[in-house]
Specification:
Layout lengths: L6 H7 L40 H12 L5 E5 L2 H9 L7 E5 L4 H11 L5 E5 L4 H8 L5 E5 L11 H11 L2 E5 L4 H4 L9 E5 L13 E5 L2 H14 L5 H11 L2 H20 L6 E3 L9 H7 L11 E5 L3 H10 L4 E2 L9 E3 L20 E5 L5 H12 L3
Helix pairs in contact: 2-9, 3-4, 5-6, 12-13
The structure holds pyridoxal-5'-phosphate (PLP).
The site of pyridoxal-5'-phosphate has 15 residues, from α3 and α4.
């Protein structure tokens, strides 16, 4: 299938032609490790499922099509995707990451890759002079997330892409929060988009997966080689679940964005909430940039993440423990709403790193339940209901 369709159509059809042998309308789960060859070295394109598997192949075709003629490589988790991407670097290279990067990414570079001779620097990626200084001119990689986690800062992808290009560095964008429906980093000059498919892409909190997407044929070849060499691949069932999740990504992202917008506006009126961080507010720093970058669907949509600051850590913890519909838990991006305390949960691995996460901060992943029910739940937990 060619890529001339809209996102929603591509998500349902790319890589998902009816099964040629049975006519099955849905790509089957090819739960097989090996493939029988007709003669020595003569096969139908599949030899061994670490290298390639038809269900995973369909998923990769679909993921690539969603970012316009790109190539996608699927992994067993978001971290497996990032670790495999890191293996394109060499000892002596340096990675520049955000000072509020995903905790697992920080841990990978600070505590695993550093031991292999790959240095790292954490910088506020909204400070372009600082980024230029840290990048130097020696290659390596610049890894950005926008909106950031949990502060939801908005980074200027085009500006960062040009700094990375000047330094000869790969520009990688972790697009987990926005997804390709809202934001296409490759269109703003990124070399590679990174996904934890565990979050919005899968969307139902029932799988762990990851992906890398690029239009650079040489990089794609290298990543495909490393995917097979390292072997951090998803199994056929997880690939199938993710393919199923992608079919509703568009309508889910619309519902997440609409719900988060309503809830953020309501939270702003609550006296017990000191600050609401949400890029959809017209006075949020970076709002204009977010509106430009997060318009992949044809109109600005700001995603389903909202962070709030309470007046004390005790209160932040009490709110996290006081909701019922918002489940207390790590992760994000599922149809069910989640609430968490980044300082003690998702970002606890940053302790001692010098990276600051306010202990008064609470992060909400707004699901697609009815927003009125979610507001009533928060009202009870905040004691304002
Ligand atoms: C969850 C997450 C990851 C890691 O993905 P896993 O699927 O948990 O390995 C990376 N980046 C971001 C922004 C995430 O939210």
């Amino acid at each position: 299938m060619t890529a001339d369709f809209h996102f929603e159509t591509t998500a349902i059809h790319a890589g998902q032609d009816p099964d040629p042998t049975t006519g099955a309308a849905v790509v089957p789960i090819y739960q097989t490790s090996t493939y029988v060859q007709q003669a020595v070295g003569k096969h139908k394109g599949f030899e061994y499922s670490r290298t390639d598997n038809p269900t995973r192949h369909a998923l990769e075709t679909c993921l690539g099509a969603l970012e316009g003629q790109a190539q996608a490589i699927a992994f067993g988790s978001g971290m497996a995707a990032i670790a495999t991407l890191a293996m394109t670097l060499r000892s002596g290279d340096r990675v520049v990451i955000s000072d509020d990067v995903y905790g697992g990414t920080y841990r990978l570079f600070a505590r695993a890759m550093a031991d292999l001779g790959i240095g790292y620097a954490t910088v506020d990626l909204t400070d372009l002079d600082a980024v230029r200084g840290e990048l130097g001119g020696g290659g390596g990689m610049l890894l950005a997330e926008t909106p950031t986690n949990p502060a939801l800062k908005i980074l200027d992808l085009e500006a960062l892409a040009s700094l990375a290009a000047d330094a000869g560095a790969i520009f990688a964008v972790d697009n987990t929060f926005a997804t390709a429906y809202l934001q296409r980093p490759l269109d703003f000059g990124a070399d590679v988009s990174i996904y934890s498919a565990t979050k919005y892409m899968g969307g139902h909190s029932d799988l762990v997966g990851g992906a890398l997407v690029t239009r650079d044929a040489e990089l794609a070849d290298r990543l495909r080689f490393l995917q097979n060499a390292v072997g951090a691949v998803p199994g056929p069932f997880d690939a199938w679940l993710l393919l199923r999740g992608l079919k509703t990504l568009g309508i889910r992202m619309r519902a997440h964005s609409a719900g988060a917008g309503r809830i953020a506006a309501w939270l702003r009126d609550q006296p017990s909430v000191a600050r609401v961080l949400y890029p959809g507010f017209s006075d949020f720093p970076g709002h204009e940039l977010a509106a430009k970058q997060m318009s992949g669907s044809g109109e600005p949509l700001f995603g389903g993440m909202v962070s709030i600051e309470l007046d004390s850590e005790e209160r932040a913890i009490a709110v996290c423990e006081g909701t019922e519909l918002f489940f207390l838990g790590e992760s994000l991006g599922g149809v069910e709403s989640l609430i968490e305390h980044p300082g003690r949960m998702t970002h606890a691995s940053l302790a001692g790193s010098g990276i600051e996460v306010s202990p008064r901060l609470v992060r909400l992943s707004v699901g697609i339940e009815h927003p009125d029910d979610l507001i009533a739940d928060l009202a009870r937990a905040l004691g304002s209901g």
